[in-house]
Amino acid sequence: MRKRIVAGNWKMNKTFEEAIDLVSEQIIAFRNDKLPKDIEVIFAPPFPFLKTVSVLIDIPHVHVAAQNCYIEEKGAFTGEVSASMIRSSGAGYVIIGHSERRMYFNESNEFLAKKVVIALKAGLIPIFCCGETLKDRKNENHFNIVKLQLEESIFHLSESDFQKIVIAYEPVWAIGTGITATPAQAQEMHAYIRKLITDKYNHKVADNISILYGGSCNAKNAKELFANPDIDGGLIGGASLIAQDFVSIVNAF
Ligand code: PGA
């Protein structure tokens, strides 16, 4: 049975105090609402808050993710953070290949392939992001782009490693724009990703992997998106910065 997951990507937002307030408010809500057993909630705060947020979280099925990691284990890489540092701070997940990393930091598919490996080695679960730009979609190249991202960044994994990861489909044109992919567009791509995984690995692996949707997913549209058979939850940006909105998205299942 694949997991249903809602992950909040805070990006470069919140001060330390604001981060504590945000997470505390949500913990109270999740404790009171009794999170369903098969739903996982993930907070992805900025690096400096990982340890504190991990310590604050004291309910089952709620986890912490980093938003990025470096490709090396340790050494002279000023300003970078390794997967094992993240793991030792209490996080269990790491977002890899977010389109903002690809766009602003020139992270290529090949570079991301290394991150996925180092994250798994450190015991972290990668949340691997893929998705096409508006130009790709207009040129009807979106399936090819996503296929290449999977082929070059995660299809080198062994079957047992592949089964540990989570995928997030995030069309770049929908991120932070207020334009959400329609449930039909998202479902179509999620089903396509699952088919690629069936072809590369097998039906069982494809059936068990969680594929999240990301891109202007909010309290209003989450229900309609999550109702689709191949959409197993969301990677939420803007709406994860408002406690009540994020809690509503989790409750949209
Ligand atoms: P958004 O961001 O929800 O603000 O569109 C999603 C993401 O970047 O993961």
Instruction: Give Rg in angstroms.
Output: 17 Å
- How much helical structure, as a percent, in the residues? 40-55%
Q: Which cofactors or ions or other ligands sit in this model?
A: 2-phosphoglycolic acid
State mean pLDDT (0 to 100 scale).
96
Strand order of the largest sheet: 1-2-3-4-5-6-7-8
Q: Biggest β-sheet: count, sense, barrel?
A: 8 strands, parallel, barrel
Q: Give the amount of beta strand, in percent.
A: 15-25%
> How many structural units, i.e. domains?
1
H/I helix tally: 12
Structural class: alpha/beta
Output the helix-strand order.
EHEHEHEHHEHHHEHHEHEH
What name does CATH use for the topology? TIM Barrel
Could you explain how this protein is built, in words?
By secondary structure, this protein is α/β, with parallel strands linked by helices. The chain has one domain: TIM Barrel, CATH 3.20.20.70. The protein has twelve helices and eight strands. The chain has helices at residues 16-33, 50-56, 83-88, 99-104, 109-121, 134-138, 142-153, 159-162, 183-200, 203-208, 222-226, 243-250; strands spanning 4-9, 39-44, 62-66, 93-96, 125-130, 166-169, 211-214, 233-236. Strands 1-2-3-4-5-6-7-8 form an eight-stranded parallel barrel, surrounded by five helices. Helix 1 links the parallel strand 1 and strand 2. Helix 1 packs parallel to helix 12, helix 5 (109-121) crosses helix 7 and helix 7 (142-153) packs across helix 9. The model has no long low-confidence stretch (mean pLDDT 96). It binds 2-phosphoglycolic acid (PGA). The site of 2-phosphoglycolic acid has 13 residues, from strand 8.
